[in-house]
Design a protein that fits this description.
Chain lengths: 227, 530
Amino acid sequence: MLQFKLVLLGDSSVGKSSIVNRFVKDTFDEFRESTIGAAFLSQSIKIKDPKTNQDVIIKFEIWDTAGQERYKSLAPMYYRNANAALVVYDITIADSLLKAKSWVNELKEKVGNSTDDNDNDNDNNNNNNNLVIHLVGNKLDLVEDDPEMRSVATEDAVKYSTDENLLFKEVSAKTDFNIKEVFQTIGEKLYEIRQKELDNNNNKQNKGEINISLPRPSTNDSTSCCS
Amino acid sequence: MNDYLLQKVIQKYPNRDQLIQEGIWEGNIYKIQSNSDSDPDSDTNSNSLSFLDNDNCGNRAFTSFDRRTRGWIWKTLVLTVLENETNFLNAGYLNNNIDLLLVPIISSNYSSNNTNTHSITTTNHHKRISSLELPIKKLSQGIRRLTPHETYIHPLRQSSNQHHHHDHNYNSNRIHSIHQYDNHDDDDETDSLNLQETLEIIDLDLSRLIIDDIFREPKVNAEMRQILFNYLVHLSLQKNNNSTHIITTGNTSHCGIGGTLNNINVSINNNNHNMKYDHLDLYSLKYYYKQGFHEILGLIFLQIYDPVTTNKESYMKNTLVVFETLMNQIEPIFYNEANLIQWEETIFARMLEQCSPKIYKLFYNETNTATTENNDITRNRHFNMIWLIRWTRLLFLRELPMEKVYIIWDHLLTFTFPIKIYMASLIVMIILHLNDILLSEVDDEECVDSDDLIEIMLHIKEQPCIINLNPVKVCKLAGSLTQIWYSQNFDNIKSLIIDKITKKQQPSKIDPYRRRMEEKLRQRVQQSLK
């Protein structure tokens, strides 16, 4: 089993907790209490290894953050060591995409910086290129009921995602549309990255390059002592 | 049934002091039974109970007070202090000398500070505002400000330096330092919201207040909104210390317990017994709402709310005063990020270290932080903030079963101890109660996964041992710990922990091999008996 840390970021009330609860508990509450600080949930999914066609279990440790945390100084604690980030906006509120963009910028900037530090520890988990960022436009159900409610055009989000090299989907936590697919895509992407890392390490060893530095204990490696 | 409990409480504790000392701190009030045939005083001797657990015999928990009775208790604890005062702002509310402010309506006609205003379409998201179809003043930055300003100076870096300072001067400055963190105004400055932003986020949060169904009622929602708004006005005046907003004729005074505007002269016009808000420009005030306020207020409102009365102003004012009295101690520390971090460093972490070095090491594992660069040291050092934020800001509301929360709040509302110390003591006591879980969940004490710990701490409600947690004992022991902490006699902490806690925990510390052997033996005997 592989274990990955996933963090949800985004403006208040865009539906971060609803997405997590739909994915983990398959429930949806019209009224959900505000997240104070952060919440933690975990869920496992199955993916197919494209080479062997065997099932691989991937466990997500999901950090659901509070959108209104007034000070962003604590945010780095939430996305510390994250392998993936789900940046959520509400497709009925234009401003929430702007907020999502600022989160993407922050992730690219800050996680990138911390990666430089981590590289010294031979920790590849948080390589900036390896942080999987998935942009998600939530509340699709509202737009289906009333198309005029849409404030963020799908094309705009698609273009932004393409430009920034992000994964992107519009979802509905209420109707369960695309929720599992988002996590499935992230899982597959993370697995692909992990396999590439392993291949690279094997290639290095085959070429006689011996990596003498020991890997830092990582929460994301189920074989480590700290898993 | 309800009246019986209330009458019984009133009879037994005719004044506030008795209620606090004999009722709450002695825990006798929680032994009152709803059955009139039983004698509450003939209940179990608390000394015979195991550490922080409910009594095994009888399996009876604590008296479950109805809201009316609990509302009476809380009002007695907080309001009776102010009833005989004439000058305090809160006393003004209680004596009906001051009216609650109405929540202003935001319109395009209003121009704040002569700035240009624009009409914009309202967000569909905030149903209450949008349903009124009010033209709302456009935000200058074009971004909905429900989320924070970006900060450029990382406060953890600052506090990390402070931490080292504290380390060097640990013994001599420990207590001194804990009194020094009331001046983090930078947080306040960046945290401020304008009126529109404030009302948006209040409406959003109130629409998501699910602690009781009554908050779905439009009337209740409107009352909560008004109470919260009045508190935010007071908080704004308090933070900005701007006396020009207030007319200062008549008697003026500073506030003590239950006071609102500590540094502001508050006036009540004695001629018409109404506080003058005429000069108060609600549109230009900075507001400091934070998520969590609404839940604290919600729980208080729930106890004091009277659905049958025709005088709704009365319970609204009472709710405001109780809420504000509590928030006066909580908001400056737990809702201010820099102060919260400093509280963690200078009080909570130090107290935990004194009480249980072993558990302290789990939560503040140096090996975990030592391998990373400076920035990460800072981050890792404060990873406990992730769970502490919710624990402290909501005063255990989401961490413990509601009946236990009520009892803890009873103790908090006596204001016997400063809440910043007492909260740390309460949390330390609960952590000590989780001792076995924490140690068993963590396989290797030298290689602790902080995420595992955070997960445990964010889900303690699900732990079986929490069901048996005796809140009265927790409060009592936390009180003792607070007193010791204040007196700085740290040897007493060790004796408190050894006498009250460690010894009581001994039975669960049986050698696991011995336990396994015993289990096997028991199974063999059972099999042989078959």
